Automatic annotation (TrEMBL):
Protein name stated in the entry: palmitoyl-protein hydrolase
MF GO annotations: carboxylic ester hydrolase activity; palmitoyl-(protein) hydrolase activity
Residue ranges annotated for the Phospholipase/carboxylesterase/thioesterase domain, each copy included: 11-225
Keywords: Hydrolase
Lineage: Eukaryota, Metazoa, Ecdysozoa, Arthropoda, Hexapoda
Length: 229
């Protein structure tokens, strides 16, 4: 049985559904929250041929808040790149994410017509998804996100160097006091070093938050990588 909460979705507005976007929220949030947040930033965050899914993470103990229950995709020792990943926790969410993708595949949407992205922890989950669990995705994006030093993601992209990988859009605020800009830059540079192509955009005077310019960049990225067919 799936541990994921309700799927909040934005239906495609055209006659055909030919692509899907899965947008993961940050820690302690929900699919409904990120959907509303995106709508407030860009009122027309919708696409004629694309369905946008906003899943909600399972409720589970989260170490950075003293082990209290929180809606998070996986557990972390702390919010820092300088700690080992909790791989057992990440593995538990892997099956859930793969099932989300499979449901779209079964509905006639191949992986190369799916984009997965997210905010904060949701962006980290998107990076695990695109570069470990389904490298056939159309593209990925990560806003205010990072990977741990020595992440298994780096190990796995090293092993497939030379193969085509989903392109990455990474966005980060220069005033982010939760996830330092340098952590995001290091993540992007290491992925690029191992063959990931993409774009890195710095948002001036932005903390750990979405903003209109960043969400517009995501919308443009989706339209570029999931054109109408």
């Amino acid at each position: 049985m799936s541990r994921l909460g309700a799927l909040h979705l934005t239906q495609s507005t055209g006659q055909k559904h030919t692509g899907t976007v899965i947008f993961f929220h940050g820690s302690g949030s929900s699919g409904a929250d990120i959907k509303e947040w995106v709508r407030l930033m860009v009122a027309n965050f919708s696409f004629p041929q694309i369905k946008v899914l906003y899943p909600t993470a399972p409720l589970q103990p989260y170490s950075p808040v003293g082990g209290q229950m929180s809606k998070v995709w996986f557990d972390r020792a702390c919010i820092s790149p300088n700690v080992p990943e909790k791989l057992e926790s990440i593995t538990q969410i892997e099956a859930e994410v793969k099932n989300l993708i499979k449901k779209e595949n079964d509905a006639g949407i191949p992986s190369n017509r799916i984009i997965i992205g997210g905010f904060s922890m949701g962006g980290a989950l998107a990076l695990h998804t695109a570069y470990r669990w389904d490298r056939n995705l159309a593209a990925t994006f990560a806003f205010s996100s990072f990977l741990n030093d020595n992440s298994v993601v780096y190990d796995e992209v090293k092993q497939v160097k030379g193969t085509k990988l989903p392109p990455l859009l990474q966005i980060h605020g220069d005033n982010d006091d939760l996830v330092d800009l340098s952590w995001a830059k290091e993540t992007f540079n290491l992925l690029k070093e191992h063959g990931v192509q993409g774009e890195f955009h710095i948002m001036e005077r932005l903390g750990h938050s979405l903003n209109k310019r960043g969400v517009r960049l995501i919308k443009d990225w989706i339209e570029k990588n999931l054109p109408e067919i």
